[in-house]
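Bug report (template v2)

What were you trying to do?
Predict the complex of my protein with flavin mononucleotide.

What happened?
Run completed; filing so the output is reviewed.

Input:
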Amino acid sequence: MSGVRFTVYDFEEAARARLDPVHVDFIAGGARDEITVRANEAAFARLQLLPRVLRGSFERDVCVTLFGGRASLPILLSPTAFHKLVDPEGEAATARAAAAAGAIMIVSMASTVAVGEVAAAARAAAEPGQAPPLWFQLYLQPDPGITEALVRRAEEAGCTALVVTVDSPVLGAGERNRRNGFHDLPPGMRCENLVDLRDGERGHIRQIAMSPEFSWEHVGRLRRCTDLPVLLKGVLHPEDARLAVRHGVDGLLLSNHGGRQLDTVPPTLELLPELVAAVAGRIPIVLDGGIRRGTDVVKALALGAIAVGIGRPVMWALAEGGEKGVRRLLHLLWDELDEALALCGASGLADLTPDLVRVPGWGSAPGPTVTPGADTRRGGGIG
Ligand SMILES: Cc1cc2nc3c(=O)[nH]c(=O)nc-3n(C[C@H](O)[C@H](O)[C@H](O)COP(=O)(O)O)c2cc1C
Ligand SMILES: O=C(O)C(=O)c1ccccc1
């Protein structure tokens, strides 16, 4: 049905050929001039890799443990809404592919399959007892009862972490959708996690409330209402990262929403060193935005991310070939990552250190935390 896909970009091309252009715009689009959308990918292209040689990296391992859960690769499926738009099985197909690959999937609050069903699909696709962790993303809701009900649904489904998206006090990313008149899910699809939580508005794209009313107090409240690890998605300012730690947040998903919220914010990769310095090892940082290659993963991990997330590539792969498409995508990225490790002389993710990346020209490793040349003596010198 589908041809060989050699790169993430092949999935995008195939998906574009297959999808309604309105849905292509929904997926590809970003806020306003889409400056941040472009900047995310460009930041990875700009950074250079400086590999080590002769490090005996015949056996390589890219497994990662996050909040006690193990994944076969440090690439998470970032939360994306509306998978049924591109595949009839929607998030269930995505979850089967993620589970088969041993990848952590973050189920969107705006999923078109209920989180309990997504979890069941993941369990069914994994080796017995081997289902990789499933996390749940949510937007705080003005009615605290709705927020709590969502948390309970995620817990009951067996999700092992909550990801609270805090970059959406209002919904961004509107212009392409407005131009296209894309405001509603088509008939037969709806945000299944919200069903029965409130009346009316079902199937409407805005049935999820986004509100600028929230403050750190609400994060504290959520923190107290669950034992699950809580991550914040969309913290960009280092001062907010410090506040997150102070409010008992367990991790950050450093994200600019794929350039879909505030336009002209910096690419996430460029913010990573500052945020790593701000949290100072107290909580892990996952980064998303613009990851398209194994070398992109290497760069993010070298600069201190524990793992990365992918958003659009998952949508493209699901559109291209359903469950199998997402499986192929994850296999392809795993393969690229493994190759990049080998070429960098790394045997594992711990070998990915800041000295492996450089800014062009005369640069040393980027970011304020890194002293030029500081890592060159790692593992002992020859003298
Ligand atoms: C079609 C689409 C839907 C998204 N839906 C959500 C969502 O429901 N919740 C959320 O927190 N982020 C959402 N995001 C943002 C992603 O989680 C992620 O931050 C972003 O896509 C990463 O950038 P990338 O697409 O370059 O990989 C969405 C992104 C896209 C492209
Ligand atoms: O499109 C998005 O980026 C997004 O986050 C979203 C959230 C809820 C419903 C639809 C899309």
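What did the reviewer find?
The chain has a mean pLDDT of 93. The first helix runs from residue 8 to 18.
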